[in-house]
Amino acid sequence: MNAPTPSSPPSAPSPTVPRSLHELQELLRAQSGPLRLVGSGSRQHRLPQAPANAQHVALTGLATIDRLDGPDQTCSVDAGVLRRDLDASLQPLGLELPCPGDGTLGGLFAADPIGAAAPGGQSPRTLLLGAEAVLADGTLFRSGARVVKSVAGFDVHKLAVGSEGRLFALTRLHLRLKPRPRAEQWFGNGGLSLADAIALVQRLRQLPTGLAALQLAWTRDGGCEVRGRIVGRAAFVRTTLQANGLTASAPNWRDHVAAAGDAEVLSTLALPAQLPALLAAAPSAQALLWHGGNCCEVAFANAADSDRALAALPKIPLAARLVVAAPLRRGLATAMDPGVSRLTRELKLALDPHGRLV
Amino acid sequence: MASLDSQLTALLGPHRVLTSPDALLAWECDGFTVHRSRPRAVVLPETTQEVQAVVRLLHAAKVPFVPRGAGTCLSGGPTAGADAVVIDLARMRKVLHVSTDDLYAVVQPGVVNLDLTTAVHHHGLHYAPDPSSQSVCTIGGNLAENSGGPHCFKYGMTQDHVLGAVVVLPDGELLHLGGPAGPRGPGEPDLLAVFCGSEGTFGIATEITVRLCRDQQGVRTLLGAFATMTAACRTVSDIVAAGLVPAALEILDQATIRAVEASVYRAGYPEDAAAVLLVELDGPLEVLAEEAAEVRAFFALQGALRVEEATDYAERKRLWKGRKGAFGAMGRLNTDLYVLDGVVPRTRLEEALAGITAIGAKHGVVMTNVFHAGDGNLHPNISFDGRDPEQTRRTVAAGREILQLCVDLGGSISGEHGIGTEKLDHVRMMYGEDDLAVMQRVRSVFNPSGLCNPGKVLPSRGACAEVAKWPQMVAKVLDHEAKR
């Protein structure tokens, strides 16, 4: 999290921290009230507010890196393992988990706030090979596998990605890893008009290979910057930088839109070509950050402005959801497809019939 | 029955509703030919609205139905019971929209995989997942099975390339999942990810949005022939450990090489080699020569008997011809072919192959191996005469042991062919009752009536008598083995 946000919370109650899978299961079986699953808590201020009587359960006590298979480029980690600890373990093996994000791995995958960092790139969705998880009633189940390829059974584990912990608790994740690139270079081209920035992004999206990250950042006062990371062999990185007129820079990745004051932030999915329409429908937007996987966040100065955008975006059409706001407003969203809405409700009923995971 | 037939005919016309036993013969099995069952009827819709109307009718009549693409599935996924209607999507073969700026296409489910690439080739684009059957298999079938292919090592499976789908649910309701910008809207669960690979048991995709990939600047295909399978497998490990990410890493064993070289798929592979490794590199021109040199060095390190490098399209096509035609070539070996599909961690390939050889010898079956070595995705193939019950019994028994071996080595019973009916009895090798119960809960959300492709993927529940024949055969084998 790079930017301060207004609703930076945390008057959340002290969480219970089970130290083992068994303890977690026992805790779930013993409780009948609402539960809020948390990791390190770094993303809690972006979730709809939990009911006042909800017990917070932190999975940080499940923190074992169970298996690091360098030659096979896979690993199995507990949900409470910190991203930075996994990164430190992978570095000597010449491997990386090629998706952005911090906090615990369980939290990162359950939130999936960004998707892919680059067009067609890896995301939590593509990197999660399998999982062990616990339902709200304490039942442990497995889905997927530890190997890089498996189509045995239904990919129930993929439902965890982006579910924000409301379907079941991921307890162990089987992840695909990638070799660290032989060379890399970050770039940042600032001072661009929106049209020029979109044109540059569109050109970079057409590259057949090489970008590991791509962002377009727009602010009302400062114009646009296009930034990203090129990876590959040194000759390729150099050529790509030069051929596209990119300006080398230090690492400049941002996870979230920069917002300040009483800002609210909407999350949406938008193609680059839709960004002018998005900003036209949201004339009071203060800042926008578009990621290469098309996840886009837009900051507004106040609730009235974001309400107007929520009303206007479906006409583009774009779906959106309020992710940073006063607690009671978080989670406000444009209408879902009716079928998706129904299935989402029924999925929740099927996996957590008493609605305990909130 | 007459009433249902006439209602279907009223919806689609007489030529798109097939009910005569002779006409239904072509739909009695997929590529998993050991399991056959003729459906009650076949319908051939051409639009989403027609699929929706047919499904509503069948749902109201409580008649099971089975969606089907080209029927190239290798696990019995689209094989229907005698009481079921096959909804054949082969006539839904329009490419509805291509966006070269945003790199996606919207297609009907009956579009043939390779036809999509052909349709966008002139834009310098292609569709990456490439099952061996890509010249006939359909995008809808690929979505249902989460199909793979040789180039999935670098580019991922079908699930990684599907951005959206319009789905007719088993009660006829229409569902819009994802879209060109991505598979999951803000705050939504990833329904598309779990739909993909559900083997036609969650509903019928009638429009599919897929990612298109920009063609790479260059491609180099190298062949290394080795005196031992171990040397070929170790070369794969060396290449991957060096951080190279080839587009494909494929191995054929000697029996496969000889079958290929004796067939119309002859590619000039050295028949004295114990294994041939195909390595395909793609990427920017400035790095290809460097990467090819590294691969050649790894070939030399493991004592390759022969090395070839294709630098133009014709040569590359020749080297791939044998690999792509390998399954067809095995038709020379016997009347039937059982194509297995297991996965092991790549680092355990040697161990797995040794075990597979031992299992083949134990059961006295003719075994060949051709596999996606980069993914650890094995395809042991057993050639047998399906008219001979004893050969069939030994084939089934060997297949089961091989899949158990894959699981014991930390792998999976399927890398890309799915469970279908073939592996219904093997699913418990990987999953316990609680795991399966959770999967069943998820399926019930999409398919509460159980009418959509019953008796597939999950053992026991909803299997009709015809569909259950194959698991019964497996059960007999198990009984037989237990008594010995």
Summary of the model, kept short:
By secondary structure, chain A is α+β, with helices and mostly antiparallel strands.
What does it look like?
The complex is a heterodimer of chains A (358) and B (484). By secondary structure, chain A is an alpha+beta fold. Chain A is 23% helix and 27% strand. Chain A has helices at residues 21-30, 83-90, 105-111, 124-127, 194-205, 234-243, 275-281, 303-312, 338-351, and strands at residues 35-38, 55-58, 65-69, 74-78, 95-96, 128-134, 140-144, 169-176, 178-179, 183-192, 211-219, 223-232, 248-249, 264-269, 285-291, 295-300, 320-324. An eight-stranded antiparallel sheet of chain A has the order 13-10-12-11-15-16-14-17. A five-stranded antiparallel sheet of chain A has the order 3-4-8-6-7. In chain A, a hairpin with a 4-residue loop joins β3 and β4 (74-78). The longest helix of chain A has 14 residues, at 338-351. Chain A is globular and about 60 Å long. The model of chain A is unreliable at 1-10 (pLDDT under 50). With 484 residues, chain B is an alpha+beta fold. Among the domains of chain B are: 4-88, Uridine Diphospho-n-acetylenolpyruvylglucosamine Reductase, domain 2; 95-214, 2-Layer Sandwich (Uridine Diphospho-n-acetylenolpyruvylglucosamine Reductase, domain 3); 218-329, Alpha-Beta Plaits, CATH 3.30.70.2190. Chain B has helices spanning 2-12, 21-24, 48-61, 113-120, 139-145, 152-155, 191-195, 229-241, 254-261, 285-301, 313-324, 326-329, 349-363, 389-408, 427-430, 433-446, 469-483; strands spanning 17-18, 41-43, 65-68, 85-88, 95-99, 104-107, 125-126, 162-168, 174-178, 204-211, 213-214, 218-226, 248-253, 275-283, 306-310, 336-339, 342-343, 366-372, 377-378, 380-384. A seven-stranded antiparallel sheet of chain B has the order 15-12-14-13-18-20-16, with helices on both faces. A five-stranded antiparallel sheet of chain B has the order 5-6-10-8-9. In chain B, a hairpin with a 5-residue loop joins β8 (162-168) and β9. In chain B, α8 packs across α10 (285-301). The longest helix of chain B has 20 residues, at 389-408. Chain B is globular and about 70 Å long. Chains A and B meet through β7, β9, α6, β14 and β17 of A and β9, α7, β11, α8 and α10 of B.
